[in-house]
Specification:
By secondary structure, the protein is α+β, with helices and mostly antiparallel strands. It folds into five domains: 179 residues, P-loop containing nucleotide triphosphate hydrolases (Rossmann fold, 3-Layer(aba) Sandwich); 85 residues, Translation factors (Elongation Factor Tu (Ef-tu), domain 3); 71 residues, Elongation Factor G (Translational Gtpase), domain 3 (Alpha-Beta Plaits, 2-Layer Sandwich), CATH 3.30.70.870; 107 residues, Alpha-Beta Plaits (2-Layer Sandwich); 118 residues, 2-Layer Sandwich (Alpha-Beta Plaits). 25% of the residues lie in helices and 34% in strands. Bound molecules: guanosine-5'-triphosphate. This is Elongation factor 4.
């Protein structure tokens, strides 16, 4: 079926986590008949197992809804899903660039949160028509009027014609569809121009290769067409073009304004990057669409196999994950303590946790993970600037002129009574106060510039616990700044354990060094000999603890000679050893490598 361009609407949904984006999307699908009630048992837009378990949307998807509007005309509404997490801002911005409008979904009981705001500003930057939707009006605590005021005052959008809905009961769903048709402009673009299609997402299929999700901006994209990825420069031939309804449905071509997917035997995610422009290799567009950028990792950690003979398997697993996640970066590294492994770079902490979990779950690997680190810039006396993502590679202090670390501009939203707690936490974490604005009588938006390394260091957990879960946080990269940073070495049994080294601000070095050795003493099991644990800056030891010796004779616990019982105990002991790494003569558990993140600031 050919669709007229003025009968197309491309939109996305912007919402804070848990404000009801997936439930609402399901309702829209259900209402337009894309999905029957029976198929609704699972929320369809989040379709990765991990996503569902964690209740977040990692990857965006696109789905076409056919809607017979009140004006008697049939419209094709393309819903482009956006990830809601701060790690994936660039993907959000590409999906917004593929739309003319956005539904801004705000929980009627909770009001605007930090991530809502960040994404709304992105949408405003992209000139999208924004339709405010106040959801969950069925809740007894719903206060749509307050939320309406927040939207007007904080964002500056008119919310008088906000749609009030309950994705739970289905109330207001038709109003949303009508608002999409009436308020969001149809796409523009000339189907006779040379092809320009924006890739806003991709995923890897083991049979078809990389599947690209795109929006045609100009021209047409047809099956059999030779295409070129303009930033990467690679050429392919299109095997399949289609749309999701939500089941994949093949079509011959997609024209300016339409949204769909293609398969072109692309073997590697690196060749099909989010943000790149697809053009016709035989009739190339003069220039790519604006805004392509190579995403850079923000957080790094070391991944090592517990059993050194699993190194090859770990490398193969990373190679495979890289095929469908171009933003994953890794290179081989060697640790004196942990042997052969990889230094991996991630978009953020969530991305890091997802990759670790997939390596363990899908590839059955048993890993030792070192504490995450940011990338530092070190200016040396030789006049060079080195970038360092592994603390143990920091040059000796004598050859350092200065060290710079990444900063982020953070926005925190919180009920008024927690302002003090948020400020206290931000100050402790070396935050630089920027601004504070009242969102309403009872809610406040606070802005701080913070070192990214301090955010990694359990900032989010602390924020949640000190505000009883009411605070929301969002941040964006804000460049490098010079700081007084030193490298802390940890010596276990007189030997420096490189994987435990970390970089810390001078003013906090004693406190963190002391707290870490105390923590390590409680984590490292007693060995047959006494094990000293020391924290040192350069050659100066600043803290010391000792793990006392004990003969660990588990069998002594069995009375008599019950052999099955003995075996059971030995099995159990083996199990317990799984996440232990033999380092020199000492066994170190996985927790020890993460201990630096867990040492209580609360101990101050
Ligand atoms: N009472 C009520 N609950 C709702 C409504 N809409 C969604 N919920 C519930 O709110 C919770 C979060 O909804 P989701 O749709 O998963 O939220 P989301 O915004 O997609 O969350 P992420 O995918 O994590 O971004 C779920 O428990 C829903 O059942 C509503 O209109 N009324």
């Amino acid at each position: 079926m050919d669709i007229r361009q003025d009968h197309i609407r491309n939109f996305c949904i912007i919402a804070h986590i848990d404000h009801g984006k997936s439930t609402l999307a399901d309702r829209l699908l259900e209402y337009t008949g894309a999905l029957t009630q029976r198929e609704m048992s699972e929320q369809v837009l989040d379709n990765m197992e991990l996503e569902r378990e964690r209740g977040i949307t990692i990857k965006l998807r696109a789905v076409r809804l056919n809607y017979l509007a009140r004006d008697g005309q049939e419209y094709a509404l393309n819903l482009i899903d956006t990830p809601g997490h701060v790690d994936f801002t660039y993907e959000v911005s590409r999906s917004l660039a593929s739309c003319e409008g956005a539904l801004l979904v705000v929980d009627a009981a909770q009001g605007i949160e930090a991530q809502t705001l960040a994404n709304v500003y992105l949408a405003i930057d992209h000139d999208l028509e924004i339709i405010p939707v106040i959801n969950k009006i069925d809740l007894p605590s719903a206060d749509p009027e307050r939320v309406r005021n927040e939207i007007e005052e904080v964002i500056g959008l008119s919310a008088q014609d906000a749609v009030l809905t309950s994705a739970k009961t289905g109330e207001g769903i038709e109003e949303i569809l009508e608002a999409i048709v009436q308020r969001i402009p149809p796409p523009q673009g000339d189907e006779t121009s040379p092809l320009q299609a924006l890739i806003f997402d991709s995923h890897y299929d083991s049979y078809k290769g990389v599947i690209a999700y795109f929006r045609v901006m100009e021209g047409r994209l047809a099956k059999g067409m030779p295409i070129k990825m303009m930033a990467i420069g690679k050429e392919f031939e299109v095997n399949e073009v289609g749309v999701f309804k939500p089941a994949p449905t093949l079509v011959d071509e997609l024209r300016a304004g339409e949204v769909g997917f293609l398969a072109a035997s692309i073997k590697n995610a690196r060749d099909c990057r989010v943000g790149d422009t697809i053009t016709n290799a035989n009739r190339s567009a003069a220039a790519p669409l604006p805004g392509y950028r190579q995403v850079k990792p923000m957080v790094y950690c070391g991944l090592y196999p517990v059993e050194s003979n699993e190194y090859g398997a770990l490398r193969d697993a990373l190679d495979k994950l890289k095929l469908n996640d171009a933003s994953l970066v890794y290179e081989a590294e060697t640790s004196e303590a942990l042997g052969f492994g990889f230094r991996c770079g991630f978009l953020g902490l969530l991305h890091m946790e997802i990759i670790q979990e997939r390596l363990e779950r899908e590839y059955g690997l048993s890993l030792i993970t070192t504490a995450p680190s940011v990338r530092y810039r070190v200016n040396t006396t030789a006049g060079e600037t080195q970038e360092i993502d592994n603390p143990s590679l920091m040059p000796p202090s004598g050859s350092i002129v200065s060290v710079e670390e990444p900063f982020v501009a953070a926005t925190i939203m919180v009920p008024q009574e927690f302002v003090g707690a948020v400020m206290e936490l931000s100050q402790e974490r070396r935050g630089v106060y920027k601004d504070m604005v009242y969102l309403s009588q009872s809610r406040v938006m606070i802005k701080y510039d913070l070192p990214l390394s301090e955010i990694i260091f359990d900032f989010f957990d602390q924020l949640k616990s000190r505000t009883k879960g009411y605070a929301s946080l969002d941040y964006e990269w804000d460049g490098f700044r010079q700081s007084k940073l030193v490298k802390m070495d940890i010596l276990v049994n007189e030997e420096p354990l490189d994987a435990l080294s970390f970089i810390v601000h001078q003013d906090k070095s004693y406190q963190r060094g002391r707290a870490l050795v105390e923590k390590l003493r409680s984590l490292i099991p007693r060995q047959l000999f006494e094990v000293p644990i020391q924290a040192a800056i350069g050659s100066k030891v600043i803290a010391r603890e000792t793990v006392r010796a004990r003969r660990k004779d588990v069998l002594a616990k069995c009375y008599g000679g019950d052999i099955t019982r003995k075996r059971k105990l030995l099995e159990k002991q083996k199990e317990g050893k799984k996440r232990m790494k033999q380092v020199g003569s000492v066994e170190i558990p996985q927790e020890a490598f993460m201990a630096v993140l867990k040492i209580g600031e609360d101990k101050r």
